[in-house]
Design brief:
Blueprint (H helix, E strand, L loop, with lengths): L6 H24 L7 H21 L5 H28 L7 H28 L1
Helix pairs in contact: 1-2, 1-3, 2-3, 3-4
């Protein structure tokens, strides 16, 4: 089982918890004026990925570079995606360029690391 007391694990769980909190805030914002409905998308994105990050951190199926990359990419990607949406909702227009598409691609790469890490480490166990 993962050592949840390590500094890396504490940071991972703290960020996942922050994404959960931020996700709820965005969902609440999205439930009010119709023009803020886009906030719900950012909230859902964060709320889906917060427990996923925790699950990846705690799983023991794979480790090493693929696990670290998956965690970093999932956190960075979902954070950038939601940051653009938050800025858009607060300012009323795109504030910082194409952060949502960049965040989406990073998130997809994070999930790809989960797939590759699971397959590669599974192959090592079978040999």
């Amino acid at each position: 089982m993962a050592d949840i007391k390590s500094k890396e694990s504490r940071l991972t769980f703290a960020l996942a918890g922050a994404w959960g909190l931020w996700g709820v805030i965005l969902l609440a914002m999205g439930g009010h004026p119709p023009e803020n409905g886009i906030a719900s998308t950012g909230g859902q994105f964060l709320l889906f990925h917060a427990p996923a990050v925790m699950a990846v951190a705690l799983q023991t199926r794979f480790s090493g570079i693929y696990k670290r990359a998956a965690l970093a990419l999932l956190l960075a990607g979902s954070g950038l995606f939601a940051a653009e949406i938050t800025g858009h909702v607060v300012a009323g227009h795109v504030v910082a360029g194409p952060l949502a598409p960049i965040g989406g691609v990073l998130t997809m790469l994070g999930w790809l690391c989960v797939v590759i890490g699971s397959i590669r480490d599974g192959d090592r166990e079978a040999s």
